[in-house]
Design a protein that fits this description.
Chains A, B: It is found in: Peroxisome. The structure is a homodimer. Chain A is built from 24 helices and 13 strands. Chain A has about 700 residues and is of the alpha+beta class. In chain A, the strands form four sheets. In chain A, strands 1, 2, 3, 5, 6 and 9 form a six-stranded mixed sheet that branches. Chain A has a three-stranded antiparallel sheet with strand order 4-8-7. In chain A, strands 10-11 form a two-stranded antiparallel ribbon. In chain A, helix 18 packs across helix 20. The interface between A and B is large, with 155 and 154 residues.
Chain lengths: ~700, ~700
């Protein structure tokens, strides 16, 4: 703590010089990598023009968000709604999508406020209304928010993931040709309904369809909440405000209770299940098609995970390239030059690239699937069976990846925040709020644990089907060899290399991960079969195997990400291939070291090969460190989107951090000096009673 | 999503019944466990009386904290300062300590606001002032906040962990017998100074002592910031407000800049280094003694980790015992009955017990050490050497444990929050704010990564000393066998058991962890030696080995926690021993499965033994589940301290959650309906320009 005697006056370095030197000799063409990440030059340019447009619009100021009250936060969000709604109507769809993907990074709470109407409410109409119903609601202004603002009434106080268990009822009254929507219990109160507290005139309500005393499961009904002229609540509708949340305070979540609210029969969305005037219920041939909308939300959360991680890592690496601490000489050492700091951040950079590429492939296979399903219409037969099979696969994969990537991103945000030291705890450096905003991604649109188990169930079922001769889907080909070995623990033979270089080749890592994932799936199959052998029902046997299923899904997700990464490396321009290969290897090797037990148990790597992998991770970190700033520059976010003085492109962190903090918190007299502090300082010991009262004592 | 046809109307169960049935047949005497956790019946009763006292004091209302603005939050905190300061003066010290430990759970931001004065400012005086100086400041009212409120000026904008690198200077002016305190650069601005923005009249400033142009390292100086009558800033002092933070907004962190501020020479705290009137500097024989104060802070953060984890797990397990979801029959299944939910929560319960016992032992060994050091005085010789050695060990262990336990607790909070599903995202269910408040524990009082590396450095140095014949400290005895084998990888022989029961016996787990920790330390020694063999300096060789050191410190911390757990089990009352033994085994086995690679590499466990460990973890979770509610009941926090409707003792979660949310957020007309929503709804498409303007076109 106190090195005796004369140390020289420490030298300080202009942080702008510190970051500038990081850009002198990038190991790859930065701009080309940006194009590759964004999906081409045109996509990058569109993104850049939209970032600029937002930055220049005073409505879109975000760096003072931390100083707004809840009421101010919500009001500011409402102001932006109109701007965006008008743009959505008049600009090409692609622009709106890019704008929303930027906004989800810059202002996630607002993204939700807007998304509840355009994504969930309109999405429910698009996915569940008949063409005539859709036309009706569009005519009423549902798409453009002219006359209608919507919210999405699924979750209840007592029911989240178990949609089939929702308690709200919609009972058909044949006499009047109406449904009576009702909340029978406290726990059936609609809860967390974004937009309900302040914004919405209508709600797509998920409720139990009841006809003639029979329950037909959860269907969707459009219920008007407020008069569109006066905003008074409609008869039978009660609404409350859920107030403060961990994050995303831009969106006004509320609760809704329905007391015998009557709606016309036509307000049930009848694309799938229909209720006729007679009360006859017609159920759809392909109930699973309703899943499509769920997948879209999940795929977009994989993209969002990648985008938010890009921002977090840009902040953390830029700060690490200018922040100096300890060191030998008169000049302190950059954080980024410490091996441990490289270990903290650079594997996360590799993870982020893995998520970028997984998101891209998920998006394109989702679009392909939807287009196939669209062409299919109401057809049945072999083609329909095939489409259902693909839908199931995409559904399971998207469930697993949504969970895996949102958890990964949440961890990246917090690791990056911690890497900023104390400054990570300021509300003005950007990552504290990023964490609070992002955290809900792990819960909504399917709780991550439940989604991971769903994915695990699919993996077990697929392995069982394959044993019966069904072909394996493309992403699960790695199971084939393991299956051929009759389920024995060893799958792809052990790694034959011994040097750090050999054990970390991409094709070796891919085989390694395939082997571990196959093992994990077969182990979950065994757990399931053990449960069945004990006489459990199928569902109970799945429950019994849940820890193994969860693990299998995680191992599968790593493998899926590595596979996608490898594919993208192979397709990438030659100039980018070396750095992307290095990142893919770092991703695969670092994750393998983190799970070394699995690899040792599967027999793919020996103990000394694991040590060699660790050596590779060390050297890969040293290599990636050289390009850490060019790599995060290539993410291509402007300072406006980064929205953190510590993550500025020019490295001028201290001046700009000081300026931001002082401009947002101008010094004023301490408001409670006279009322509280002066009396504290000037008080004297209370001894007004004088000496203690003495009383006689007997011994 | 839509099970066709008639499912029966679901039954709802009163959640109070659901939790009541959990308490019908506890497997151990709950009250006795509470006594054991708290350290005896008397301690429990004192804790209970203080919880009740706080609950009944309207000043201490906390359940509306989420709805306060930053300004209201700070003002409310200031109101409580006086109450607590008066109590601290008039009540026994033990009461104040228990009160503060409750407050650190109920209201962590206030705890900091109060602790900055009583812990840090007064602590600096106690640790670094001469007896005469201490008497002077006490006389001025420093202890009782009568005339003086203090803050602690260590961190700077550009310097955190590297205290020796602080830039603020205190230059001796022999002509006037004063020090001139000065902030030479922007980065030397004191930053994060709790209490500076609104509260403090004085600051203990850490600055470079400069005498006659020579620098003597960082020393501490008391500098007055504000006039105590008017609260005007003193000449040369500038202060600003750091505004909003991730959490702990009760404390008014600020920045301070000094421009040639003059203070009397006597305001340098001279218990260790002295500056005489002549300018002669006398440095202390035992510079390390200044570490003592650091240790206390770290030990208290281990206790705090245990206490905060107790609250989080009480909320999560109680909610899991009443929340129902999915399931076979008409009644949905309790979350706590799902194996995966047991896996999510119950190992965390075991971790919490491990932290409780580690905190207790750390506290008592710290007190013993301080008492020894106190007796020692200024003596030198063998006794002093021994004391310094103990100090180093306690310093290193406390550093490692502070990091390990705060990270563990942060993870526990977030796992518990996620286990509440969507309700975990509400500000009124308690864990979102708990996370934000707690997160700073991973950074302040020593950044966790740096502390872990310090602990790792101590472990490497100790192993090197032992090789030279120095005796091993008690907590590192496990190194002995590994050392005897001349540093070879195998240490304690491989486990001989094969059943789940055998591989998870406590003595086996203890040996297993000792073996893995020894391996990790020897591996860090090898990395260090490799660095030296490459010609690196000692410091650079340590840097080179940092990933291995970090890992060694983590493995050592697990081992330390398990050892403490075993000791406590052995000393516990017979009635508690079975349940504590089960928890200790779950802690050791679950952590081992999480790090299975280390155990396979060390050769202690084989692959099939790891599988047997997993089987044990599954069955231990099933066992612990039976007593999950009694165990968290035994933590002994009242509903006031739990401060979450989902964690209520009586299980009446839905009614009370609804009541809290609605009472704190009464419904009012939407404030911006007329200004923003109506114009949005009623707008028409803008086409005032009529048809597009046509212009001539040439082909």
């Amino acid at each position: 703590m106190s090195p005796a005697s004369t140390s020289p006056t420490p030298k300080t370095i202009d942080p702008r010089e510190s970051i500038a030197e990081e850009r002198k000799a990038p190991g790859f063409p930065i701009r080309e990598l940006t194009y590759w990440i964004d999906g081409g030059k045109k996509a990058t340019e569109l993104k850049e023009s939209i970032m600029l447009e937002l930055e220049r619009d005073p409505l879109w100021r975000v760096n003072d968000n931390p100083n707004l009250t809840l009421a101010e936060t919500r009001e500011r969000a409402m102001k932006k709604i109109r701007r965006l709604a008008d743009q959505a109507m008049s600009h090409p769809l692609e622009n709106t999508m890019v704008r929303m993907s930027i906004i989800s990074v810059v202002d996630p709470g607002f993204w939700t406020r807007f998304g509840v109407h355009f994504g969930l409410f309109v999405g429910a109409l698009q996915g569940q209304a008949t063409p005539a119903q859709l036309a009706y609601w569009m005519e009423k202004g549902a798409l453009s928010m002219q006359g209608i603002t919507g919210c999405f009434g699924m979750t209840e106080l007592g029911h989240g993931s178990n949609v089939a268990g929702l308690e709200t009822t919609a009972t058909f009254d044949a006499a009047t040709d109406e449904f009576v929507v009702h909340s029978p219990t406290l726990t059936s109160t609609k809860w967390w309904i974004g937009g309900a507290a302040h914004t919405a005139t209508h709600c797509s309500v998920y409720a139990q369809l009841v006809v003639d005393g029979r329950r037909y499961g959860t269907k969707t009904f459009v219920v008007q909440l407020r008069d569109t002229k006066t905003f008074e609540l409609m008869p039978g509708v009660n609404i409350g405000d859920l107030g403060k949340k961990m994050g995303r305070d831009q969106i006004d979540n509320g609760w809704i209770r329905f007391t015998y609210v009557r709606i016309p029969r036509s307000h049930m969305l009848m694309k799938h299940t229909k209720v006729l005037r007679s009360g006859k219920v017609i159920e759809p041939p392909l109930a699973q098609l309703a899943y499509g909308a769920l997948i879209q939300g999940r795929v977009s959360m994989v993209s969002d995970s990648a985008n938010v991680a890009k921002r977090a890592l840009t902040i953390a690496t830029r700060y690490a390239s200018v922040r100096r601490q300890f060191g030998d000489g008169a000049i302190e050492t950059k954080l980024l030059d410490y091996p441990i700091h490289q270990h903290r951040l650079l594997p996360l950079v590799a993870q982020t690239f893995a998520m970028i590429f997984a998101a891209r492939e998920m998006t394109s296979s989702y679009r392909q699937l939807m287009s196939e399903l669209g062409k299919l219409g109401d057809a049945t037969g072999a083609k329909a069976d095939e489409a259902i099979k693909n839908l199931k696969e995409t559904h399971a994969t998207s469930a697993g990846l949504k969970a895996f990537c949102t958890w990964m991103c949440l961890n990246i945000i917090d690791q990056c925040r911690q890497s900023l030291g104390g400054h990570g705890y300021s509300a003005y450096t950007g990552l504290a709020q990023a964490y609070s905003d992002f955290a809900v991604h792990c819960t909504w649109e399917g709780d991550n644990t439940i989604l991971t188990l769903q994915c695990g169930r699919y993996l077990v079922a697929t392995a069982l089907d394959a044993r019966k001769g069904q072909p394996l889907p493309a992403n699960l080909k790695y199971l084939a060899r393991a299956m051929a070995q009759n389920g024995a623990a060893k799958t792809t033979g052990p790694c034959t290399g011994s040097t750090a270089e050999e054990v970390s080749e991409l094709r070796v890592l891919e085989a390694a991960w395939g082997s571990v994932a196959a093992n994990a799936i077969l182990s979950a199959v065994r757990a399931f079969e053990t449960g069945q052998a004990k006489g459990m029902s199928k569902d109970n046997a799945y429950e019994f195997s849940s820890a193994a299923r969860l693990h299998a899904a995680r191992m599968h997700s790593y493998t899926y990400l590595l596979q996608r990464f490898v594919t993208q490396v192979e397709q990438s321009p030659a100039a980018l291939r070396p750095v992307l290969t290095l990142l893919a290897r770092l991703f695969g090797a670092h994750s393998a070291v983190q799970h070394s037990g699995e690899f040792l148990q599967s027999g793919f790597y020996s103990g000394s090969q694991i040590e060699a992998l660790k050596t590779f991770v060390n050297s890969a970190c040293t290599e990636v460190r050289k390009d850490a700033i060019p790599l995060t520059d290539a993410f291509g976010y402007t300072d406006y989107v980064i929205n953190s003085p510590l993550g500025r492109y020019d490295g001028d962190v201290y001046e700009k951090y000081f300026d931001l903090v002082t401009s947002l918190n101008p010094q004023k007299p301490v408001p409670y000096f006279d009322s509280l502090i002066r009396p504290l300082l000037e008080r004297t010991n209370e001894s007004e009673l004088g000496p203690e009262l003495e009383i006689d004592q007997e011994e």
